[in-house]
Amino acid sequence: MHCTLYILLAACAVPPTTTASGPDPTVFLATRVAELLTQNALTDAALQVNAATPELPTTLTPMAATLALPADAAGATITALPQPMVSATPATPCADQACVSGAEHFWLERPAPAGYVNYPARTYAYGSTLQGLREPHHGVEFENPSGTPVIAAAPGTVIVAGDDTTTAYGPATNFYGRLVVVQLEQTEEGQPVLNLYAHMQSVNATVGQHVKAGDFLGTVGQTGVAIGPHLHFEVRIGRNDYLSTRNPELWLKPLLYNNRPWGVIAGRVVDTQGNLVASYPVVIRPIAIDYDDVRSKYLTTYADETLNGDDALQENFAIGDMPAGTYTVSVSTTTLYRQTVTVTSGHISWVTFVVSPPPPTETPTP
């Protein structure tokens, strides 16, 4: 992301209203949505995101081949939310690698065809807030130019196809712009699994249409609250609801390298009372990996507003497309905590940190 974009956002940012336990989620979202809707009215030139320089080679492909794109479908329509289902009560978090391996569900192909940027952007990952400058992110972004094909990630039925001018599929109407929601054929522990595709330039799917992986849904755009053209992609479990998302990086099939899938690193950072620690930096450094690019990865634990860990894992950080090999994973509070993990092809590598967060900073009385 360009520095000019960062400066623009910083200038517009307003600290969220807080409560004794931290930021108030309702006020936080309402404030940020209002700010971002205002920012979205600025010129495309001022907010253009450069999607031309990928972090990974574009020759990397998902496990399954991309299917042919069909001709454009009829005009898009909008439909109301389906009757919601109650989400399952979260299970006990996974404590070991055997539990984690049993909870893997890499069902989804990439929603962008091979030859385009088909991996999530690292600048605004699931659960992050760009250091408080944005609303907590409920999906991942695939940064591609306007007009890039958007394709279905898995077989299912289209339940929403159009825009969100009258129905809020996010925290407000006009937030996702043109969008498609597909309810998958496959369920997770009896609960529906849904994929949301948003900020689209055009929608070429219709409600009730059955799609298979690779079918054409529309094109990448910049509609709704979007800074630069990109596809916003979500996984929702149980109901088509903004509060029911999960981290897509735990659902996307890892990319292939030398005909072998990469893996995922995920874990939990908790305090000494077992409470999840929100928005803490996590640094992942390669030691010895099966790949030439040895850059470190920087992410944060999920923000504490409106986000969810996987029902089985209950992680609060995860990153996909990690080459096989050995890494250090570090979390820093007033103390540096570090562990070594080994990523194996096509699997999640799990790590847990128990940390003593620094005491809260007192705000002086005026």
Rg of Cα set = 20 Å
What is the average per-residue confidence, as pLDDT, rounded to a whole number?
A: 80
Q: In terms of per-residue confidence, which ranges show pLDDT below 50 for 5 or more consecutive residues?
A: 1-26, 37-90
CATH superfamily label of the domain at 256-355: Carboxypeptidase-like, regulatory domain
Q: How does the overall form come out from the CA principal axes?
A: globular
Number of strands: 20
Please outline the major beta sheet.
Answer: 9 strands, antiparallel
CATH class descriptor of the domain at 256-355: Mainly Beta
The secondary structure category is: mainly beta
**Percentage beta strand:** 25-35%
The CATH architecture name of the domain at 256-355 reads Sandwich
Do you know the CATH topology of the domain at 256-355?
Immunoglobulin-like
Q: Can you describe what's shown?
A:
By secondary structure, this protein is mainly beta. 10% of the residues lie in helices and 30% in strands. Strands 3, 4, 5, 6, 7, 8, 9, 10 and 11 form a nine-stranded antiparallel beta sheet that branches. It has a four-stranded antiparallel beta sheet with strand order 16-15-18-19, with no helix packed on it. A hairpin with a 3-residue loop joins β18 and β19. The N terminus is likely disordered.
List the helices and strands and how they pair.
Blueprint: H1 3-12, E1 18-19, E2 22-23, H2 25-40, H3 44-47, H4 97-102, E3 140-142, E4 149-151, E5 156-163, E6 178-184, E7 193-203, E8 210-211, E9 216-220, E10 231-237, E11 245-246, E12 256-257, E13 260-261, E14 263-271, E15 281-289, E16 297-300, E17 317-322, E18 325-332, E19 336-343, E20 348-355
Parallel strand pairs: 14-20
Antiparallel strand pairs: 1-2, 3-10, 4-9, 5-6, 5-8, 6-7, 7-9, 7-10, 10-11, 12-13, 14-17, 15-16, 15-18, 18-19
